[in-house]
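[Meeting: bench + compute handoff]

Bench side (C.D.) handed over the final construct sequence. Compute side (W.E.) agreed to return the predicted structure before the next meeting so the bench team could plan truncations. Sequence as handed over:
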Amino acid sequence: MNYDILIIGSGPAGQHAAWQAARMGKRAAIIERKPKIGGAGLQTGTIPSKAMREVAYQLSRSGGMRQAVIPDVRSRHSLLSDAIRRKEGVIAQQESVILQRLLSNGVALIPGEASFVDAHTLQVADANGKTQLLSADVILLATGSRPRRPANIPFDKKTVLDSTSILNLHHLPDSLLVVGGGVIACEFVSIFASLGVTVDVVDSHAQLLTYLSKDVVDVLADSFLNMGVTFHMRQRIASIRREEYCTVTTLESGKEFRTDAVLFAQGREPNSGGLNLAQAGVVSKDGWIEVDADFKTSVPHIYAVGDLIGRPALASTGMEQGRAAVRCAFGGGQHVLAANLPMAVYTIPEISYVGLTENEVQQQNIPYVIGRAHFKDSARGQIIGDTHGLLKLLMDTRDQRLLGVHIVGEQASELIHIGQLVMNLNGTVTDLISNVFNYPTLAECYKLAALDCVHQVKH
C-alpha cells in the first residue's frame, strides 16, 4: 500500500483525521480536488460567512443599546468592501496555519479528484487530466456537502444566489429576498440587513429555526424586525425568474416580489457523486453515506465523517468524528465523543444551545421546569446594552440535572460551553448556584437561571 490512510477532503473533518493519523505514526495523505485547502469550512462556508458577519455585528453595535443603524447609500460599498477584506484576510491566514500544521506533521497533500477503483484503490485525476492510482489500508471519506440547487431555480451567481455564491458578491444589492428560514438563511439575513439591505424572508414554516423554542427564536425575530426585515411565513415559492434589472419571485399564493437579488437557502447535498462508491461496495442513501457508531461504512476499512454522513453536520463535530474514526481504524481505542454537543447559529444576536429542546423533553415525558435569566437583569447586560438576551435552563425535577441550555444574545456561542461542561460531567443546577462567577459578566446569568429553577420547584 502507498499509504496507511488516504483521506478524501481537506475540510475540518479531514484535517483532524490526518493530524490524528500522523500523531499515531501513520503514513497519511489528503486528496483535495479544489485548488485551495480547507473545504467549505474555510473557503465557502463557516469561516467566510462568520468573518463577514463580524463587520455587520460591529455596525449593529455602533448604534448604542442595540438600536438598528441603517447605513446611507454612499457607505454601503465601503461596508461590503470591509466585509470582503476581513473575509479574505481570515481565509488566507487560516489556510497558512492549516497548511503548516499538515506539513509539519508529515501529512502529504495530493491535488486532484479521487474516485474508487476498488475497495483499497483510488484513481486521482489532477487539473491537467493526469491520473495516478493510490492505495491504502484505510480510506476515510470527508468530502463534505454543498448548497442544494434545484433544477427549477435559475442560479446565475450574480442575482440568483446560493450560500456559496453570495459570499463572492462585490456589489451590495439594495433589496434581497431570502428563501428559507434555517440556520444559513438566518445568518445571511443578519449580515445583509445590518449592512442596510432591504430584506424579505419567505419560508414554509410558522417560525424561523423550527426546531428551537419559540421564546428563543422570538428574540431573534424581534431583532430582525428592528432591522427592517419583513417575514412571509407559511409561504412557498412557485417560480423565480431573472429580468433585465431585477429578479421576480412568485409565491404559490400569487404574491410577487421584485428584488435586486434572491438567496435560495434550503438545505445541502452530499459531495459523493464523483466518488464511484459502487466500485468499493460502500452503501449510501441519496448520496449520504451510512456509518455505524465508529464511523465505519458498509466496508469495514472505509470510514466516512463530517457533513457526508448527515446531521449534525457541524465543523466542530466533524473534527471529533475524524479523530474518532482514525483511532478506531488503527486500534487506538474508541475516541469517546462528548454526550452533549453544542450548536450555534451566528446570527445577530447569536443563538446557541446544548442538550434537549422543550419539545424533546415533553415527548420523553420527563418532569421539568424552566429557569430563565434575562441579560437586562444582569449588570453586564445593562453595561453592554443587550436588553433582549436570554439564558434558559431546562431542569429535570427528579434530580436537578440539566436537560438543556438555550441562549440567545451576545456571546451565546461562547457562554454555551459552561452549560455543556456541567451536563457532560453530570452536574446539577445546584452546582451552578454554588459556583462563583466573575462580576459583572453574562456568565452570571447561569446562576440567576439556576436559582429560578430551584425557586419554581419550591413553590
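W.E. noted at the follow-up: Residues 368 and 396 are 5 Å apart (CA to CA). C.D. will use this when planning the next construct.
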